[in-house]
Write a structure and sequence with these properties.
Layout lengths: L3 E7 L8 E7 L7 E11 L1 H8 L15 E9 L11 E5 L8 E5 L3 E3 L6 H4 L3 H14 L7 E4 L5 H12 L3 E6 L2 H9 L4 E4 L5 H7 L3 E6 L5 H8 E9 L13 H5 L3 E4 L7 H14 L1 H5 L7 E6 L3 H10 L5 E5 L1
Parallel strand pairs: 8-9, 8-11, 9-10, 11-12, 12-13, 14-15
Antiparallel strand pairs: 1-2, 3-4, 3-6, 3-15, 4-5, 5-7
Helix pairs in contact: 3-4, 3-9, 6-7
Length: 326
């Protein structure tokens, strides 16, 4: 291996144009870490937030963007027991995915599921870790419950629809066009609501209310989500595209015994992420290997075209995941 690698760095906070090619020293794996020769890397909303200067990497993480990747183990650090050089893996990263090589903890990597390409495998971890931990662990979704996920055509949305449907829930979602709604229903949504044409609250109320809502919009959606919940319903917040501040009548929360919670993945401990990875290996990776679930792929960009990839992500024109090819 060379002592340097190609990468994309954030030259200053700003729009997609601040992403520029650079050369960096090759990372060296520490205790419990593996070095991945990246084949493809996923592009996600947190990458755009970091680029804009509003989502700093946790201490010790690479300042390069990129929270998921797929490739081959190129080196292992001390105390690594799970992986060998040459193993094909996909992994959740603390950062650094937009590069030829990236480090992660050995327990945050999973085998590339049988039948998936490296491009597909690179689209798994950030969304599947997020959806599993928020929908099934924090949100406690059960078979037969009514589940509403906003942004159904996003990477999170397409993953949540498939997983919830596979687990026996009744799935509802919102999207912004007829094309996106059709794509969501093809993935298993019972009803995809075009939010430009219908009020999701009225649709869900007619079904008895949502037992669980997964939301990344925030802002004006917060009071509407609370109203759309069934008694004893749960709202899980994972992002705030409209902003985190709003006036909300909490009397409804008390009177109807509602739960409002949320999380963000990147700052969680290595141990917490390892538990999520183990759950995915047990409950979800067999579904992927069996062909019951697959990442929905939108577009593949070359690493040097990361700015164009971010522009597409922020246009919200995509359906599914965007990845970079190294």
């Amino acid at each position: 291996m060379s002592e340097t690698m190609r990468a994309i760095e954030i030259t200053k906070p700003g729009g997609p144009e601040v992403l520029k090619p650079t050369t960096r020293p090759l990372p060296v794996p520490g205790s419990g870490q593996i070095l991945i020769a990246v084949d493809h890397a996923g592009v996600n909303r947190p990458d755009a937030l970091q680029r804009a200067g509003s989502y700093a990497p946790p201490p010790g993480a690479s300042d390069l963007p990129g929270l998921e990747a797929a490739g081959v183990v190129a080196a292992v650090g001390p105390d690594v027991t799970r992986w060998n050089v040459g193993d094909a893996v996909c992994a959740l990263l603390p950062g650094g995915g937009y590069a030829q090589y990236a480090l992660t903890h050995q327990d945050h990597a999973l085998p590339v599921p049988a039948g998936l390409s490296m491009a597909q495998a690179a689209a798994l971890c950030e969304t599947f870790f997020t959806v599993w931990s928020n929908v099934f662990v924090r949100g406690r979704l059960k078979a037969g419950e009514r589940f509403l996920v906003h942004g159904g055509s996003s990477g999170i949305g397409t993953t949540a629809i498939q997983l919830a449907h596979a687990m026996g829930a009744r799935v509802f979602t919102t999207a912004g066009s007829a094309e996106k709604c059709a794509a969501c229903e093809a993935l298993g949504a019972e009803r995809a609501i075009n939010y430009r044409e219908a009020d999701f609250g009225e649709v869900i109320a007619a079904e008895g209310g949502a037992d669980l809502i997964l939301d990344m919009v925030g802002g004006s959606y917060l009071p509407r989500n609370v109203k759309a919940l069934a008694d004893d319903g749960r709202l899980v917040q994972i992002a705030f595209l409209e902003g985190p501040k709003v006036e909300l009548n909490f009397a409804q929360v008390m009177m109807r015994r509602l739960t409002i919670t949320g999380s963000t993945l990147r700052p969680q401990s290595d141990a917490a992420k390892a538990v999520i990875a183990a759950d995915l290996a047990t409950h979800v990776w067999p579904l992927i290997a069996a062909g019951r679930i697959a990442p929905v792929m939108d577009q593949v960009f070359a690493l040097e075209d990361a700015a164009a990839a971010h522009a597409r992500l922020e246009s919200s024109a995509h359906i599914g995941k965007i990845v970079l090819k190294l």
